[in-house]
Amino acid sequence: DGGITQSPKYLFRKEGQNVTLSCEQNLNHDAMYWYRQDPGQGLRLIYYSQIVNDFQKGDIAEGYSVSREKKESFPLTVTSAQKNPTAFYLCASSVDRGGGGANVLTFGAGSRLTVL
Amino acid sequence: AQSVTQPDIHITVSEGASLELRCNYSYGATPYLFWYVQSPGQGLQLLLKYFSGDTLVQGIKGFEAEFKRSQSSFNLRKPSVHWSDAAEYFCAVGAKGDDKIIFGKGTRLHILP
């Protein structure tokens, strides 16, 4: 079945360490997104990518980095510059880029990062 | 500025009772509107969407929503809730040709037996 796979499901890191969250999709979707979710805050956009080798900052990009070397992969690195990285991270993808309609997002199951 | 407001952080209803979750948006362009549902520790699933046409849209799991342009609202309804509907619900807004989707802060639904 097609879908989005995020790994790891749970991740612990010490302060000052970088960590990379994986996001892979086999839906042949063009656009991919990273959201951060905190209790009572809803979803906030970190980065998104519309095509390979191109990506744009979202609302809270500071302390994060991404790459889009392949259409199906969009890893997120949480760097030591992110001051409050403990959160639930959601990856999403969408097929309808440039097709005249707003994007319907398909989500992965999420990765929970805890900084010790 | 573009925004989505879900005024109720928590809602509790009895099983079998009707449900309405509120959503108001502020968006410069003609909005495309969505409702998503999230079970604890999981990703989000699309319940329904409105792009154009009939302002009353039907979704999965017996949910429906009505777009009211004059009130800038897109409220979600269900005539009779089931215990399995307990989850968090998010309203979201986008626009034609815009890759960014803006989410509300969510409403957590609790079901009493």
In brief:
The complex is a heterodimer of chains A (116) and B (113). With 116 residues, chain A is mostly beta strands.
Content-based structural category of chain B: mainly beta
| Oligomer category | heterodimer
The arrangement of helices and strands of chain B along the chain is EEEEEEEEEEEE
Shape of chain A: globular
Task: Give the low-pLDDT segments of chain A.
Answer: none
Number of helices of chain A: 0
Global mean pLDDT of chain B? 93
Q: If interface size is counted as residues with C-beta under 8 Å from the partner's C-beta, which chains form the largest one? A: A-B, 30 and 25 residues
Largest sheet of chain B: 6 strands, mixed
Helix fraction of chain B, binned, reads under 10%
| Residue fraction in strands of chain A | over 45%
Could you walk me through the main structural features you see in this protein, from its secondary elements to its overall organization?
The complex is a heterodimer of chains A (116) and B (113). Helix content of chain A is 0%, strand content 50%. With 116 residues, chain A is mostly beta strands. Chain A is built from no helices and 11 strands. Chain A has strands at residues 4-7, 10-13, 19-25, 31-38, 42-51, 54-57, 64-66, 76-78, 87-94, 106-107, 111-115. Chain B is mainly beta. Helix content of chain B is 0%, strand content 53%. Chain B has no helices and 12 strands. In chain B, the strands form 3 sheets. In chain B, strands 2, 5, 6, 10, 11 and 12 form a 6-stranded mixed sheet that branches. Chain B has a 4-stranded antiparallel sheet with strand order 3-9-8-7, with no helix packed on it. Chain B is globular. The model of chain B has no long low-confidence stretch (mean pLDDT 93). Chain A binds chain B through residues 4, 31, 35, 40-45, 48, 50, 58, 88, 90, 92, 94, 97-98, 100-110, 112, and chain B through 9, 32, 34, 36, 41-46, 49, 51, 90, 94-101, 103-106.
